[in-house]
Amino acid sequence: MKVRCSGCFEVYDNAFNLCPYCGHAPSAPAKEPYHLAPGSLLAGRYIIGNVLGFGGFGITYKAWDRKLESVVAVKEYFPSGVVNRQPGSQKVVVLSSKSRREFDFGLVRIIEEARNMAQFNSNKNIVNVFEYFEENNTAYIIMEFLNGQPLSDYMQENGGVLPFDKSIDIILNVASALKVIHSKNIIHRDISPDNIYLCKNGNIKLIDFGAAKFSVEQASNYTIILKPGFAPPEQYEQVSKQGPWTDIYALGATLYYMLTGRKPDESTNRKVGDTLPDPVRINPQIPLYISDAVMKAMAIESDLRFSSAEDFAKALRRESKVVPVKKERRRKKNKRFIGLASVFAVIVAVVILFGADMIIRNRASQLKPADIVVWYIDNGDERQKEIYENIVSDFCNEYNNVDVELVGIPEDQYEEKLREAMDEGEAPNVFVSNGFSDKELDDVYDITDVIYPEREFENSLISKFFVDRSRTDCMYLENYDDISDGKRVPVGFNVPVIYINESKLLPGAELPEKVGSLKDITKLIGEEDIIAVNPELEEEFDDVFNKDISGRIVLSDKEKFLNGEAAIYFSDTSEYFETKKMTAKNMGIPLILPLEEEIILYDSFWSVYDSSSEDENEAAEEFLSFMLTETAQNEIYLKDHGKALPINKDSMAAFTGTYGDFSFLTEKEKRFSFDF
C-alpha cells in the first residue's frame, strides 16, 4: 500500500517503517519541542511537514496543500527569546508582557513582508506568496516551495568564484525582478547571495522581503537592516534617501563577489578611503566593460550609480557604454564652472590667505631645533600605535627642526607613571591630561595660543581673513576660553544622547527629531519600561530634564540597556560604537536621538609640561596645534573608532558623511553649551 510521508510528502510503500526519502517515521515528533509537529494542520488546509530552516525570527516548514495537492513552504513567525510553545500544542505563547511589544512589532513586519511579496506572484524571478493569515497567536506566510539552494551555498560548493557567463545570467535575472518591484516603488534593501535562490529547474528567485520598504525621494527614517559588504552607505544611516540605487549597489556588490570570490569592503570604510580594486585587477579574464559596470553600480555616491536596474542590465549585456566611475567623477568636478567675477574674488581671497599660510610656514621654519617627548595612553591596540606614529611622522615632515620621541604607557599604569615623572621634574613635553586636577597641572605651560594663534597678529592686514579661518578650523572651540584655564587642549568631544531599543517602542510611536523633555521619550515606551542613566552623566541628565519619574529612572551603565531591561539609555556619543556592536546581534542597531539643548563635553585633553627650554615649549605647542589639524584628526577618528568625536570641522564633516547618525552636530554649532 502506498502512503504519503508526513515529513517530505513523497509517496512510498507502506511496508517500510521509515520514509526512504527523508527517514521520517509516521508517528515521530518534531525534532525541536517548540516546532510544529509533522501532521499539524493550518487553516484547515496545510499539513505541516519537516522543518526547512529556523532562525531568530521564525521557522520555515515544508507543507502539503490539501486543496491543490502540492508541496508549499510555510513561514511561521516565531521570534526566539520572545515566544515559546508547549510540546503537543500549536499555540504560540508570548513569554512576558515586556516581550509583547517586541512580538507585536515583528508581527506587523512579517505581515508587511507578505503583502509586499504577494503582488509579484506572476513574476518568475520572485518567490510566490499564495496566502498569509494569523493563527495560533502568530502569523504564517504560505509560499511556493523552492527546490534548490541559496547562491551563497552554491558558491561555497563551487570554489567561491563562478564562471563569467553563469554570474551574468544570475544577475540579469535578479535585475529583472528588481525592475518589477522598483516599478511599484518598493526597494528590497537586502540583496545578497543569501537571498538569491537557484532552483533545480533553472529558475532564479529573489527571496526574503523582510526588509523591503517603499522608495522615497526625501530623507526618511528607516530601520537599519543590512549585510556588511553588500549594503551601500545610506543603509547605515537611520535617516537617509533610499531608492532603486540602494538595491543597485547591493546587486553590483553581489556580482563583484561572484566574479572575484572576495566580499567587498564595507561601504562605510570605502567612504573614508576607497581602496576597493576593480574586478579586472583581481581577475584579468573579466571583460573591462563588465568591470566598469560593476564599479559604477557600487559607486559610493548614489548619483553616480545606474539610475535603474534596467540600465545596469543593459550595461552587462553591452547594450550601452559605461563611463568609468573615476572618469565620471572627474568630469563632474570639471563641470563646476565658476564665473569670472567669482574667480577674481577667489583669487583675491587666496592671495590673502596665502599670506596667512606663509606666516604659519615661516613660523614652522623659525622653530629652533628641539627634541620633545610625547606620551600617550596605550590601550594595547596596534592600530592606535600606528595612528600616533603616522601623526608624529607627518608632523616631523612639516617641522624639520623637531625630533619627537613617542612613548605609549599602558592604560593601567599611565596616571601613576605621569605623576611620578611630574614629581621628579621629568614629565614628557606633551602628554594626555585626562583625569588630572587643575592643581596637579600647576606646572604646565600656558597653551592658549594653540587654539587662538591669530592673536599673535591681530593688527596685521590679513587678520580678518586669518581669524575667520582659524575660528572655523575646529568645531565648538570659539567659546573654549570662557571655561579654559589654558592648561589643556581638547582634541575631541562628545555630546549626551538618547539610545533607544527599537523593539520596545510602542506600536505607532513617532520618534521626535530632538528630545526636549522626558515626555518626549516616555510616550514612546510602555509604563513599565525603565530608563537607564549613565552615572557619570547624572548631572547632565538633571540639567536637561530637571525632574525624575518615580521608580523609572535608574543609574546604571549600559548593561541594563544591552540586556533588554531598559528601553532607553541616557549616555553620550562615547559609547556609540561599542553599544552598536554589542546590540547588533540581540536587538539590532540602536536608534539615537539628540537632545534639544545639546551640551558639548570636551574630551581627549592634552597638555604641555613647562620645560626649562623655551625651544622645547614652542615645539611642543606646535605639536598640539598639529593635533587639531585635519591630517591628525583624520588619523585619530576616521581610521579608528575612538571614544570621542573629531573636533576639526573638516574631519567632522567627513565623519558625519560616513556616520549619518551624527549629522545633527554640524547643523547649528552656536546652540550648544559647553562643559568639561
The structural domain count equals 4
User: Helix share of residues?
Assistant: 25-40%
Shape: globular
Indicate the CATH architecture of the largest domain: 3-Layer(aba) Sandwich
What is the assigned CATH homologous superfamily of the largest domain? Periplasmic binding protein-like II
Summarize the structure.
The chain has 676 residues and is of the alpha+beta class. β3 and β4 form a beta hairpin. The radius of gyration is 30 Å and the shape is globular.
Task: Please provide a written account of the structure.
The protein is built from 21 helices and 29 strands. The chain folds into four domains: 2-144, Phosphorylase Kinase, domain 1, CATH 3.30.200.20; 149-325, Transferase(Phosphotransferase) domain 1 (Transferase(Phosphotransferase), domain 1, Orthogonal Bundle), CATH 1.10.510.10; 340-493 and 602-675, 3-Layer(aba) Sandwich (D-Maltodextrin-Binding Protein, domain 2), CATH 3.40.190.10; 496-597, Periplasmic binding protein-like II (D-Maltodextrin-Binding Protein, domain 2, 3-Layer(aba) Sandwich), CATH 3.40.190. The protein is an alpha+beta fold and 676 residues long. It is globular, with a radius of gyration of 30 Å. The termini are far apart. The relative contact order is 0.07. The longest helix is centred in the middle third of the chain and has 27 residues, at 340-366. Helix 3 runs antiparallel to helix 4 (244-260). The strands form eight sheets. Strands 18, 19, 20, 21, 27, 28 and 29 form a seven-stranded mixed sheet that branches. Strand 3 and strand 4 form a beta hairpin.
